[in-house]
Write a structure and sequence with these properties.
Layout (H helix, E strand, L loop, with lengths): L21 H14 L3 H20 L5 E3 L5 E3 L4
Antiparallel strand pairs: 1-2
């Protein structure tokens, strides 16, 4: 079966070079410290979580968090 132009084959791994804003740098540092994960693992997980949340929101789902006191909080990703 041949590859179509709309579904090109993707490499198993891809390397990206990005410039991160200071809040993202701080968040990565905090997450690597608190989780023990590498920077690459933190960034990979963040991208996958964002893709999942974006797909859910585009599908009409409400993104909610429940605070420890039981209060729901709606997430707005801008």
């Amino acid at each position: 079966m041949s590859e179509s132009a709309s579904h090109p084959r993707r490499a198993a791994n891809e390397r990206y070079s990005v410039t991160l804003v200071p809040p993202a740098v701080e968040a990565i540092a905090e997450l690597t410290e608190s989780t023990g994960l590498s920077k690459a693992d933190v960034i990979n997980r963040a991208v996958q979580i964002y893709a999942y949340l974006d797909a859910q929101a585009r599908g009409g789902a409400d993104l909610m968090l429940r605070q420890p006191d039981g209060t729901p909080e709606r997430l707005h990703i801008v």
